[in-house]
């Protein structure tokens, strides 16, 4: 029976060190970590690896429930997948486990709180942006991908997948830029 640790934070400028240290202190081995949003399971390759690897009797540990996810349905689906494999989840703070029904109930409530917190964060962000726009100081987010470069590469006959790879972005970003400019994506 393995005690598998999972650490997650939302952005590159955040640190996983505290979570990883706590999971090591609890005897977790291996520990998988990633820097990706907990809003959904999309792009969470380390979590997917744990769910693929976990065996009967294994325990998956997270420091807090919101590290597992910020969507109640996702958290409960993860617990269900662990159940199907005969494994269970332990949250270290506050300490609870899905071995018993009380832990499941508390986890459901914590998942709902994390989801509500995420909604509050988005609402505050929208309010802040609206105020900044009113004052004329909002300039929008910084572009991560040069639209001009995407369009130039497409005109050179480079396909969307090759553009994405060359620019280090997702194909979806390339498709959005091309769609916004009305560029044919099928012709090479």
UniProtKB/TrEMBL annotation:
Pfam families: HTH_7, Resolvase
InterPro entries to which the protein is assigned, alphabetical: Homeodomain-like_sf (IPR009057), Resolv_N (IPR006119), Resolvase-like_N_sf (IPR036162), Resolvase_HTH_dom (IPR006120), SSR_resolvase (IPR050639)
Bilayer-spanning residue ranges: none
Domain Resolvase/invertase-type recombinase catalytic: 2-136
GO molecular function: DNA binding; DNA strand exchange activity
Assigned protein family: Belongs to the site-specific recombinase resolvase family.
Name by which UniProt lists this protein: Transposon gamma-delta resolvase
Encoding gene, per UniProt annotation: tnpR_1
């Amino acid at each position: 029976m393995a005690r598998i640790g999972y650490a997650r934070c939302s952005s590159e400028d955040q640190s996983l060190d505290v979570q990883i240290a706590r999971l090591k202190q609890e005897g977790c081995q291996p520990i998988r970590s990633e820097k990706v949003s907990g809003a959904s399971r999309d792009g969470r390759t380390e979590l997917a690896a744990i769910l693929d690897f976990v065996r009967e009797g294994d325990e998956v540990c997270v420091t807090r429930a919101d590290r597992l996810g910020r969507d109640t349905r996702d958290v409960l689906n993860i617990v269900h997948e662990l159940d199907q494999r005969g494994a269970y989840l332990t949250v270290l703070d506050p300490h609870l486990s899905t071995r018993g029904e009380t832990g499941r109930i508390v986890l459901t409530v914590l998942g709902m709180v994390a989801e509500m917190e995420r909604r509050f964060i988005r609402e505050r962000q929208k309010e802040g942006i609206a105020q900044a726009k009113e004052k004329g100081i909002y300039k929008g987010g910084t572009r991560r991908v040069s639209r001009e470069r995407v369009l130039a590469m497409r005109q050179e006959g480079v396909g969307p997948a090759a553009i994405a790879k060359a620019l280090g972005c997702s194909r979806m970003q390339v498709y959005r830029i091309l769609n916004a400019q009305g560029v044919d994506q099928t012709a090479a």
